[in-house]
Design goal:
Helix content is 58%, strand content 12%. By secondary structure, it is of the alpha+beta class. The strands form 2 sheets. A 6-stranded mixed β-sheet has the order 1-7-8-6-5-3, covered by helices on one side. Strands 2-4 form a two-stranded antiparallel sheet. The chain is elongated. The chain folds into 2 domains: 201 residues, no CATH class; 164 residues, Heat Shock Protein 90.
């Protein structure tokens, strides 16, 4: 049995994955209310933590003194850096300005926030940090040192988180572009072979059986129309009803070509007709069954595609009563079409999906897709 696992997948880099596509350069400047509130609360907790540490080193001072100074300086510094980076166009894609601005922004924000924050805290307590007395000078030096170290640490923390998010977005964009390219390559490999065979059969049927030729032409038009629509929508999901209709057109064409050697059944419960699914997930499995399971047999065989829901799991099976499944180094299970099914499942659904192919108990082959549906 061949089962998908995340560890088996290593994405193939594609040229241009980091190009000018909007997906490759998502905006990292998130100023939504939720994002701002999250960063504000993080900064607030850091300020409280710093005030606690200062109080442990200087227990003779009341806790509210380092707390107020820490909050005034820290929150002002966060606001200046967080809002200030939006003024630099270079920060749009990475979340942080480029060049000298990457240093000048936090350094300038720390200096200004220390001066303004200290003045606010002084006003709150009714004294001055800058009065020149020995005690004030001692606390001033202490405050400058703590504020500088804390400012650098906090700015680096947010910078690192933003950079990590940027790299994750870039990786996801590259994987998405890779999947799109592989899907187009899959279509380019699957469709010409089928199209040429269909046209050859259509040519022979025009003279001998015009009615069947007309039916074949109608299904070919429907199939090509659906293929064109899906190639434009790339990974946009469509319904299982649309996917099964596409399979019906394809299998009708194959049945006209193979005659009585191909018997097929499509089983889609009414409750699942609107269930969304990515296009071109099932056709490689059907083509695999016909090419490797049914066509090698003189008598042909039967093919059944079915979908069902078990709890939160969508299960789709492609079962044939053909030549059977034999694992090997050159087996169809490792072929291009089935490999694309694995990679697209992992890219689109992650650990919520699995693929397996194995020999059927009564002969033939069963390929199974399992997708965990979101609540």
């Amino acid at each position: 049995m061949d089962t998908l696992s995340p560890a088996q997948y290593t994405p193939s880099p594609q040229p241009g994955a980091g190009g000018s596509s909007p997906l490759a350069h998502p905006s990292m400047l998130d100023f939504s209310t939720r994002a701002l509130a999250k960063r504000f609360l993080q900064t607030l907790l850091i300020c409280v933590g710093l005030a606690t540490v200062q109080h442990l080193f200087l227990p003779e001072r009341p806790f509210d003194v380092p707390l107020v100074y820490s909050l005034c300086i820290g929150l002002l510094c966060w606001a200046m850096v967080d809002m200030g980076r939006g003024l630099f166009p270079s920060a749009r894609h990475t979340g942080w300005p480029a060049g000298a601005s990457a240093v000048l922004l936090p350094v300038g924000a720390m200096a200004m926030s220390f001066a303004l924050g200290s003045a606010l805290a002084d006003y709150w307590f009714g004294w001055s940090t800058f009065d020149g007395s020995a005690m004030a000078t001692k606390h001033l030096r202490w405050s400058i040192g703590v504020s500088a170290l804390a400012g650098m640490a906090v700015n680096y923390y947010f910078y690192s988180r933003g950079k990590a998010r940027f790299l994750i977005e870039r990786l996801q964009a590259a994987q998405h572009q890779n999947t799109q390219a592989q899907l187009r390559l899959l279509q380019a490999q699957l469709e010409p072979h089928m199209l040429f065979n269909t046209l050859a059969n259509l040519r022979s049927l025009i003279a001998s059986d015009p009615a069947r030729a007309q039916t074949m032409l109608d299904h070919l038009i429907d199939f090509l129309r659906a293929t064109l629509q899906h190639s434009r929508s790339a990974e946009a999901p469509h319904s299982l009803a649309q996917e099964f209709a596409r399979l019906n057109d394809y299998l009708t064409l194959m049945a006209i070509r193979m005659g009585p050697r191909l018997q097929y059944q499509l089983d889609l419960p009414p409750a699942l007709v609107s269930q969304p699914i990515a296009p071109m997930l099932l056709q490689p499995l059907v083509e695999n069954s016909i090419q490797h399971g049914l066509e090698p047999l003189v008598a042909g065989g039967e093919l059944k595609v079915s979908a069902l829901r078990q709890g939160d799991m969508l299960i789709i099976t492609v079962a044939d009563k053909g030549a059977g499944y034999t694992a090997g180094p050159d087996d169809a299970a490792t072929g291009f079409g089935l490999q694309q099914v694995r990679e697209r499942l992992l890219t689109l659904y992650g650990e919520r999906a699995a693929f397996s192919i194995q020999a059927a108990p009564g002969g033939g082959t069963v390929a199974t897709l399992r997708i965990l549906l979101r609540a």
